[in-house]
Design brief:
- The protein is mainly α.
- It contains 16 helices and eleven strands.
- A hairpin with a 2-residue loop joins strand 10 and strand 11.
- It is globular, with a radius of gyration of 25 Å.
- It comes from Nannospalax galili (Northern Israeli blind subterranean mole rat).
- GO terms for molecular function: calmodulin binding.
- Pathway: Glycan biosynthesis; glycogen metabolism.
Length: 526
């Protein structure tokens, strides 16, 4: 029997850590992860981030397998990931009527819920009892559905599920104009429950749309029916709005540490490297402390001055939270992963050392990432006078699954068990790479020979529609009708994409429909 290699021993250590801190919370029936042993709700966003360590560890085992048991372990971990993603899919499919309504109303009351019952996949609060409309959470699900499918996992099983995913694309494609509650679930900074346009949601939607476009959800076993389609104009709208907002996070938030998720891993939604650096520097200069980063300025969550009996604040209260905002270690894991992707070894080392210094040692010495660090109630006045000088205390029962998962994933990357391309098989990380200039070319066609001859009289030689056979030319409205048929499903009572005009990017492509090549003339808005 071969002896265990050093890398195998280290991977086994990470496997124990994953089992003791993440998978122990996974429901055996639904696959969902509860927030803790006491909190049984499963948040969509947290579940996706929390399973990334399991996904990464599975790939690490497969790549570094010493024995057959390692391959079996890799398969087991991958199936844990599939089970969770399918659990989230089931939660959303049970709310298919909301997906159908939201495409037309974009109302907060018609949105998918943000959290579900871990044991049953059912909803846990009413439509108006939580800030459910969180476009970034739905987009994050689609982004990693695409990435995990591209990595070889089989998550989607049937064409009904494909149709539902196609409708989720329609659900998020208008993110550039949808005010939502954002990744912190409470809307604007005052916690008045007012939705607003959030850069983190727009950016995550842009990334998801780009990642899932033309992806076969059945992987190597699929065909044209299992391919997802995205209109390029919707991506461009998201990009334009995102670029106009950054580095600002929203109307009420000057900057938000959550933007790390869109300027770097996992979204890589910003293509302008200068804008990436400006946003990153804003986060570091305004939000970073000794224990992590604040979510945003004047964030009252779990501070000693917050009234825990009220969900919302009075606008005048925000001043009370200045300089005593809680600091979240999870954001340092983003900086570590960002440094690995950008090849900045100094940044990786700096944040790994900083994070190691604030981890909590649990049973058997395992490392746990706490949710946040807060100012002790009796030290508030001292912190007001001298910001970032008071020693903070961890709050929340460790581990914080989201942070724990990204900590493990960053460690696997930093120690060489994973390559960046393995957790980004769709190459989102190259979004800031220099691209060739876009050359706009306009093709002019004569509708018939009579018009063609009129042009020739003036010395302009063009082809007629008949001359370019077998390519067929149709008006843009036909393409709008074709897109309206995408995602239609009688079983789920889904109507597909709402009829809307197609933009110039959509009509700038050649389409193969039933083995014939079509092009469409631009659709004129009236």
């Amino acid at each position: 029997m071969r002896s265990r290699s050093n890398s195998g021993v280290r991977l086994d250590g990470y496997a124990r850590l994953v089992q003791q801190t993440i998978l122990c919370y996974q429901n055996p029936v639904t696959g969902l992860l509860s927030a803790s042993h006491d909190q049984k709700d499963a948040w969509v966003r947290d579940n996706i981030y929390s399973i990334l360590a399991v996904w990464g560890l599975g790939m690490a085992y497969r790549k570094n397998a010493d024995r057959d048991e390692d391959k079996a372990k890799a398969y087991e971990l991958e199936q844990n990931v599939v089970k969770l993603m399918r659990g989230l899919l089931q939660c959303m499919m049970r709310q298919v009527d909301k997906v159908e309504k939201f495409k037309h109303t974009q109302s907060t009351k018609d949105s998918l819920h943000a959290k579900y019952n871990t044991a049953t996949c059912s909803t846990v609060v009413g439509d108006d009892q939580w800030g459910h409309l969180q476009v970034d959470a739905t987009s994050l699900f689609l982004l990693f559905l695409a990435q995990m499918t591209a990595s070889g996992l089989r998550i989607v099983f049937t064409l009904d599920e494909v149709a539902f995913i196609q409708n989720l694309v329609f659900y998020i494609e208008a993110a550039y104009k949808v005010a939502d509650y954002g990744m912190w679930e409470r809307g604007d900074k005052t916690n008045q429950g007012i939705p607003e346009l959030n850069a983190s949601s727009v950016g995550m939607a842009k990334a998801a749309l780009e990642a899932i476009d033309e992806l076969d959800l059945f992987g190597a076993h699929g065909g044209r029916k299992s391919v997802i389609h995205v209109l390029p104009d919707e991506v461009e709208h998201c990009q334009s709005i995102l670029f106009s907002m950054l580095p600002r996070a929203s109307t009420s938030k000057e900057i938000d540490a959550g933007l790390l998720s869109i300027i770097s891993f996992p979204a890589f939604a910003v293509e302008d490297m200068n804008l990436v650096n400006v946003t990153k520097n804003e986060i570091i200069s305004k939000l970073q402390g000794r224990y992590g980063c604040c979510r945003f300025l004047r964030d009252g969550y779990k501070t000693p001055r917050e009234d825990p009996h009220r969900l919302h604040y009075d606008p005048a209260e925000l001043k009370l939270f200045e300089n005593i905002e809680c600091e979240w270690p999870v954001f340092w894991t983003y900086f570590i992963i960002d440094g690995i992707f950008s090849g900045d070894a100094v940044q990786v080392q700096e944040y790994r050392e900083a994070l190691e210094g604030i981890l909590i040692r649990g049973k058997d010495g395992i490392h746990l990432v706490p949710e946040l660090y807060a100012i002790p109630p009796d030290k508030v006045d001292e912190e007001y006078k001298n910001p970032h000088t008071v020693d903070r205390i961890p709050l929340g029962k460790p581990p914080h699954l989201w942070g724990q998962s990204l900590y493990i994933l960053s460690s696997l990357l930093a120690e060489g068990f994973l390559a960046t391309g393995e957790i980004d098989p769709l190459n989102r990380r190259f979004s800031t790479s220099v691209k060739p200039d876009v050359v706009v070319q306009v093709s002019v066609l004569a509708e018939n020979n009579h018009i063609k001859k009129l042009f020739q009289k003036h010395g302009v030689h063009i082809q007629s529609i008949a001359d370019i056979h077998p390519i067929r030319v149709q008006p843009g409205r036909i393409l709008s009708h074709l897109y309206a048929k995408l995602g239609r499903n009688k079983n789920l009572k889904l109507s597909g994409r709402p009829y809307r005009h197609i933009g110039v990017l959509g009509t700038s492509k050649l389409y193969v429909i039933r083995n014939q090549i079509f092009t469409f003339t631009p659709q004129v808005r009236r």
